[in-house]
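Lab meeting notes turned into a lecture example. A postdoc, R.K., suggested we walk through two folding results consecutively so the class can see how the record format repeats. The first protein's sequence and structure tokens come next.
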Amino acid sequence: MELSESVQRGLQSLADPSSFDHSGFSVLVDVSFRSLLSSHSDPGVLDQPELKQIDQILLKQSHAAATTFILEAVKQNADKSTISSCLEELTLSAERIDVFYSAYQKHKKELERLLASIGRRPPVITDVSWRLQYHMKSAQVDKVNEPFYLISLNTEKDGAPEDINFTCTVEQLQDLVGKLKDAAKSMEKASQM
């Protein structure tokens, strides 16, 4: 995992027993997971009695580093060996790594759901229908004599059906089909890697 220097410094301060004793480390790890999973921001999340003696700036830096590391680990679906090797490089003891990993396992599924719910997903196309029409004339020109297609994409977004309708000429439809074929080939190549 690639981590920024500030995240690395924050995690290294968590490794230092003079900054965070064992109970302070355990509480900070627990608080970091809870702060990510709480639906509202709790301003007193770092006001735990075990954390009162720690410098507030160091505490906030370490909390930010821990939450960033947690989110990065969940995003990359990191396993125990990946997390352990990364934290060992930052000089965390085996005991602290075990504390962190047990909390990670306990909350991983909830965090995966949280991350999956963030962001914008495009609608999924479930069906396509089309109809060929023919323009005979328009208000500006007496004779147009041009075919065009009425395309209807039946989509589903967040479980709700939604239709997208548009018209296009033969050339535009050929261009669309070509681009869809290119996209399908790219997806196929990407899935084979």
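The second example is placed directly after the first for contrast:
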Amino acid sequence: MTTSSPTDPAGPLGLDPALLAILACPDTHHSPLVVDEAASELVCSTCDRAFPVRDGIPVLLLDEARRRGTGAA
């Protein structure tokens, strides 16, 4: 029998869906973040920075983010 408590992470990358709904890029534009499960990252839809998720914890530091380089200059 499986039970889930309200504190169990149930969303992608082990993150709570309610948390994912409010996370935004820490840069000045504050765009919502999109999950990239394959890379274990949260991606900003505006600046294309990718923020790592380590052990279920999003690391939203600009110094830790990487530019994904989608070909845009």
